[in-house]
Amino acid sequence: MMNLARLRSFIQDMTRLVERHGADEQRMLDEGEKLLRGLIAADDWLPEEFARPSHEGYRQYLLHCDPMERFSVVSFVWMPGQRTPIHDHTVWGLVGVMRGEETCEEYSTALEATGSHPVRRGEVDRVSPRIGDIHVVANDGEDVAVSIHVYGANIGAVRRHTYDPATGAPRAFVSGYANAAVPNLWDRSARA
Ligand code: FE
User: Fold this and answer.
1) Span from the CA of 131 to the centroid of ligand 1 (angstroms)
2) Count of domains observed in the chain
3) Distance from the CA of 87 to the center of ligand 1, in angstroms?
């Protein structure tokens, strides 16, 4: 059963949080993580078109952008073997795995690989320029992986960087989104 109300509630909670504590990154990460763990604990709300993988590469679908662009919520979908380039974010971010399992490979600002760890279903990982902002996310598993990400900006419009793995040279990029329309959170007629 599709339970979009869960996403609506999450967005309402995140909006309250950013209103109160948007300038406090630590608090956004701590309290945002609790909210995101709640959202990904039940896998019954993400419409199928926002969980569709592509052979051409991993997909990022915008689910919601705050009207003031203080945060955005994005579903990422990876087929087995798909991976991001080495990239940064320039804003805080939370990565919550809802299906499958992902691997995060972390890099220092000098582009040295500093470690890698699995992010399992139900777990949340963090990034930000303050705590470590450069990584690769990969699906090394055998199933499609879906994660829900929350960022402290309209992430698809942020000018940030990918890095050449051989030379470390940065390249400016703006990720954009794979979808042209966002989920309709506001049709409550099914309950009426
Ligand atoms: Fe990332």
Assistant:
1) 13
2) 1
3) 6
